[in-house]
Amino acid sequence: NNMLSWQRTGFHFQPEKNWMNDPNGPMYYKGWYHFFYQYNPEGAIWGNRIVWGHAVSKDFLHWTHLPIAMNTDQWYDQNGVWSGSATILPDGQVILLYTGSSNESVQLQNLAYPANLSDPLLVEWVKHPGNPILTPPRGIGKKDFRDPTTAWRTSQGKWRITIGSKVNRTGIAFVYETEDFKTYELLPGVLHAVPKTGMWECVDFFPVSLSSQNGLDTSINGQGVKHVMKVSLDDDRHDYYAIGTYNETANTWTPDNPKIDLGIGIRYDYGVFYASKTFYDQNKMRRILWGWISESDSESADVMKGWASVQSVPRTLVLDHKTGSNLLQWPVEEIESLRIGSKEFNNVQVKTGSLIPLEVESASQVDIIAEFDIDKAALEAAQGTDEEFNCINSGGAAQRGSLGPFGLLVLADQSLSEQTSVHFYVSKARDGSLKTSFCTDQSRSSKASDVNKQIYGSFVPVLEGEKLSVRILVDHSIVEGFAQGGRTCITSRVYPTIAIYGNARVFMFNNATDANVMASVKIWQMNSTSIHPNSEDGNNS
Ligand code: DQQ
């Protein structure tokens, strides 16, 4: 109940108060989705007392907050219980591996396990008496060794994990093998290395199916499988992934296309999305991606509101079988059960230079699906237009080009004094080939001055015969956009001062000079999910 409380989310995960960062150890256990997260119980900024917050849900919508799972109570994690992952073993045991920042700020890997496996809520955790189980390898900086992954099982029945690091400016990932999760062997070489990418945080490594829409257990390998590797670059604060091949014997992973390698190729998201982590949901046979969405306002604003950061909606992750070269991210289907009243606007002609309001009562908490069809004749006629266009350097939604931009304005007030644009821009090369950009323009998103108003964006693959399509989840201060079924995603944090609650509107616009666009849009109001505080009030300890 302060001035900025409208920024709280309706359906994105967040604790009741204080600072949150990386998702940790997500898993499905005895009917519950467990979610742990980097949490500062003492304030709204990242601090020395970083612990594992813990919440459970049956549906990713309604969360019950549980007591802190792991506190800074040992010499080896006195400066922080940092990020890590969960592994569920075939015999039902649950393993947590995490990084402790020690009393001397050395990054050490540690093992923890549930005190009581028959408790589906896994409230109590035991730190292994033999911790730390791993120290930085020879020649590695004591602050450059963190964030163990979920373990996968080899053909020999042993377990492996990978941990990010760096040597000079080369990002690398070490692999360790273990049988009991207590003693480990460092395998020779590295899983992968990319020069000039700096420290690799929160490495993720998992298989995707070449033929099925189902997710795969992390240990699956062999025919019909590709392996995805993801790194979070400490230097530029973005999550990069690449699709490639895992060679268990050689202990290497090789990207399919060396030009789309980690740190130089594709990102999960072109806005704010970091330190993400997937897990295999054996309940619905899918792989789910969680990502941390930090604030884009000032630290003093965070302190004033008493909290900072949200999590993305969990996203189902599959290989895009049509392109073969990217993943598809899509909000988990459970989110759709929050949809209430909807409005449809079908086959609306959006002429060049026009703006069309979409009449919905209040659009501060909505799910939008839109499809755009560019005028064929204009596409044909255009020649060599804006060949060099890209979202970030070529201007925002107000710019005018031959075949774009066109799209939606969300979190806009009636007079458009505040607006966030989610749009496409099509450019045509002299050789006739088309390129589609997907952008979010925050430059006019808020009258406030102490907030980030960058333009975000990238290219999105569009195949022959496909219309341009986008899904946008708007949740007060979050705009999460998924283009072409989730090939390219952009998440932004925006802080309107007028376009809030009932004053938030949606518009369609077309600033192209040559191409009319046919649009169909469906907008659902979204219900709020509830947050159940834990009775012991674990978040306040
Ligand atoms: N956050 C954690 C680290 C990780 C970083 C500390 C990534 O384990 O490398 O809060 O955001």
TrEMBL record:
The chain holds residues 118 to 658 of 667 of the full protein. This is beta-fructofuranosidase. Residues 334-525 form the Glycosyl hydrolase family 32 C-terminal domain. Belongs to the glycosyl hydrolase 32 family. GO terms for molecular function: beta-fructofuranosidase activity. Residues 12-331 form the Glycosyl hydrolase family 32 N-terminal domain. GO terms for cellular component: vacuolar lumen. Pathway: Glycan biosynthesis; sucrose metabolism.
